[in-house]
Amino acid sequence: MSVLEKPPPEAEDHADHHHPEPFWKRYIFSQDHKVIGLQYAFTALFFLLFGFTLMILMRWQLAWPGRPIPIIGGLLGEANAPGGIMLPEFYNQLGAMHGTIMVFLGIVPLAVGAFGNYVVPLQIGAPDMAFPKLNMASYWCYFPGGLIMLASFFVPGGAANSGWTSYPPLSTIATQGQTWWLVGMIFLITSSLLGSVNFIVTIFQLRVKGLTFMRLPFFVHAQLVTSFLLLLAFPPLEAAGIFQLLDRVLNTSFFQPSGLVISGEVLEAAGGGSPLLWQHLFWFLAHPEVYVLILPALGIVAEVIANNTRKPLWGYKSMVYATIFLGFMSFIVWAHHMFLTGMGTTISSFFQTTTMIISIPSVVILTALFISLWGASIRFTTPMLFALAFLPMFGIGGLTGLPLGLSPTDIHLHDTYYVIGHFHYVVAPGTIFAMFAGIYYWFPKITGRKMNDFLGRLHFWPSFIFINGIFMPMFIVGLAGVSRRLWDGGEQYAHAQPVLEWNLFMSISAFGLLFAQIPFMINLFWSIKKGKKVDSNPWQATTLEWAAAPSPPVGHGNFVEVPAVYRGPYEYSVPGHPDDYLPQNLPGKEG
Amino acid sequence: MGGHTAEEIRGEIRRYWIIGLALFLLTVITVAVSYLDVSAGMAVFVALLIACIKGGLVAAVFMHLISERQAIYALLILTVVFFAVLMIVPIGTRASPIPMG
Amino acid sequence: MQIPYTIEERPDTGLYNAKLGIWLFLASEVMLFGALFSSYVLLRTGDPGFMTMSHDVAEALHLEGHAHRWSDVLSVPLAFVNTLVLIFSSVTIVMSWASLRLKDFGKFRLWMGLTILCALGFMGIKAIEYSSKFSHHLYPETSNFLGVYFTLTGLHALHVIGGLIVLAYLWGPGSKMWKSQPQRFVNRVETVGLYWHFVDLVWIFLFPTLYLL
After folding, report:
1. Residue B31 touches partner A, C-beta closer than 8 Å
2. What is the pLDDT of residues A276-319, one digit of tens each?
């Protein structure tokens, strides 16, 4: 990280303090949004890799049930994998923690904490976030939350094992790891609350002169709506988390119905609670959370596509309104996760209607991005490859969601591998590909160097092929009715026999995907030191972050001179202008 | 917001005390009503009505929402809508249940 | 580096940063307490025995004769006094803000000090209430109504404690800012006031729904 440790000499000139700050203040308890963004980025990337490794272990077990795991099998401990053979209880821990880590510790912190933190203030011309101390506090709530989740693997009984959804009463009677999970979640919720307040205030208050709402880059709109979702949807989960914590620690009965019998014994509790209440409160967050996962990704893809097609985004305004509508609707679709709970048909009809409605704005955004490609002379840069792959992958993820949103078809598909295939298409080749696009795209701004294109292609093509190899067969397996939670992949079930062979295929694809990330890791760390040096606007982009010269932008304040904005965000190939891009901050005719 | 001249602020102070007194009286009323023998539905209605009036006074005057900026109003309207959505939770669980067993 | 609009208002939104920030935080709090209330409604309407205390239980708790509903074990007089204390503290904190705007620092200290005393008084009465419940062996696990009661009032009390810490800071060491950046200090008192009124507002709803209905 030599680039980060040696800021360019100009940085000192514009700093408030003319003596350099001590190391811990500059890189550990930093209040600079750029450093905090990088802290988030590296922590989140670590958790993504860790969560992926958990899945690799599971995929081994699914491909070869009951066979000892080579090499690392012996390291997992006798309680988890005696003789290297995974126990069902451990498989459940891996499943629950894979979901939790990927969503709450990997993707959201990367999409919002890292990209949002680094890019949003730059794109709106702000010197920093509105509340730098809160920003720091946000990271330092996220980090211990992650540590608590990791530590839970080592407590008696292991980590949480009731699924990432933690449905009671199963989770109420689960081992100690569940309590750790709840405490960790409270830290993460606090972190995202602090972050979302900060983002909204920053975007409302710190836009530079001339940057009206309809001139904001689409990425900023996406982050703004995302922040509102985090702000208003997380508190109900916090309430639910507190209830579940009390159920477990103080033996209250918020989620424990009367007369619950476990292993032949009546549960000692006052009773009268409602397990369904948890599901309502959980999905009240967790459905908007889906859009928290996808909106920043759409924002990144929009930036990359506009830049590499060298033309304005098609239907920018429709995309903005669609995003706002999407955010709004995401609060009233949650019960489509609960069609099979015995919830009434009236309510099911209501939620399946809203679910169908919410697909409209998603289609509007995706269509606008597709049409933006029309007639463009596309630059096939590495970020563009990932952005282009995102479009059909997100499309598949979205379309396969329709049968799940309709209660009659959901009865068959609920809790099968089909569901896994559906949402992974949205978040894995969807969101994670967009995150890769974002890393390749903004890397030159962060380091002043470009990542290697050959290694980038070596990362992209195998990833693209293998990731489809994992998730496409899940639709087949799921349609055959195989449940998503089977430790042996369905070996004991007659109806799973015809599709059992796909397990091996999916697992080998997963191992392939792991190997495909090696070029990326090499590229990322190698390029920090050795990547090709580039100027402050290597992609010839129009938005304000590229006006913050040099790369990386100066330590305190980002901009040497506060910019002003004269036109919309994507003025590419403007007729009559000598260059094919017209930066937002270039004085001249209002566009 | 709140006024800027000393005159305006003194006017506000008078208003604060009046509202404080009103809140005190409404609290007495709500307790008094709870000792009356009315139907359960009526009791809930009256108690919530009084609580809403009190809450409204606090928000409007003490939190000076009567003279606040548009952005705050927009935010609060949004929040109130989603608060109402949250209240679907109990209804959603009870409405037209599928007979079990 | 200077973050814009920390003190003065941004012309197009008419707000300084912290004011928008505190309202966003309160919006999130509305959703938190909204979820808690909504859960209370669901649990209460979903379980026919939610409020009724069986005869055996009343006897076991030595409450026979005067308690048939779980809410009967709560003390209305104490909660009534506490309501008045919080309402009064709402008046005093708004008075401290007004005094500052009249540039009367002495009166600010007085009213802010009274607010802190009210907050301490509220917590004292709360402690008496809780300990009397515990001494009758009434715990969160005893019944779902008591679970809701302890959770909601407990979370509210945590909000009071949080507010108390900030109030004490602004009364004591934080008030030095009045000398260096008076307008910023007025803003701080305003924002913490908004939070404090919200805590009062939550109690205004907790009091009848838990104690009186």
Report:
1. no
2. 999 999 999 999 999 999 999 999 999 999 999 999 999 999 99
All residues of chain B having their beta carbon less than 8 Å from the beta carbon of residue C34 are 82-83, 86-87
pLDDT digits (tens, 9 = 90+) for A183-210: 999 999 999 999 999 999 999 999 999 9
Is A199 inside any structural domain?
yes
Domain containing A47: what range?
A: 2-258+268-547
The total number of structural domains that make up chain A? 1
Q: What is the ipTM of this complex?
A: 0.96
Cβ separation of B93 and A204 shorter than 8 Å? no
Q: What is the pLDDT of residues A234-250, one digit of tens each?
A: 999 999 999 999 999 99
CA–CA gap between residue C162 and residue C150 (Å, rounded) = 18
The whole-angstrom separation of Cα A586 and Cα A589 is 9
Contact between chains at B92 and A277 (C-beta distance less than 8 A) = no
- Summarize chain A as % helix, strand, coil (round to 5): 65, 5, 30
Nearest to A440 by CA among A534, A570, A505: A534
User: pLDDT per residue over B25-78, tens digit each?
Assistant: 999 999 999 888 888 889 999 999 999 999 999 999 999 999 899 999 999 999
CB neighbour list of residue A413: distance below 8 Å, 6 or more residues apart: A403, A404, A419, A478, A479
Q: CB distance C24–A131 less than 8 Å? A: no
Substitution target in C38, C51, C192 with the highest count of B β-carbons within 10 Å is C38
DSSP code per residue over A476-535: HHHHTT-BTT-TTTTTT-GGGGGGTTHHHHHHHHHHHHHHHTHHHHHHHHHHHHHSEE--
Classify residue A84: in a domain, yes or no: yes
Q: Tell me the CATH number of domain C17-45+75-212, given options 1.20.1050.10, 3.30.428.10, 3.30.230.10, 1.20.120.80.
A: 1.20.120.80
DSSP string, A192-216: HHHHHHHHHHHHHH-PPTT--GGGS
Neighboring chains of A (3 or more beta-carbon pairs < 8 A): B, C
Inter-chain CB proximity C14 and B71 less than 8 Å: yes
Q: Is residue A567 part of a domain?
A: no
Q: Is A557 in Cβ contact with C142 (below 8 Å)? A: no
A228 touches chain B (CB under 8 A): yes
Residue of chain C minimizing CA distance to B34: C212
Contact B95 A344 (CB under 8 A): yes
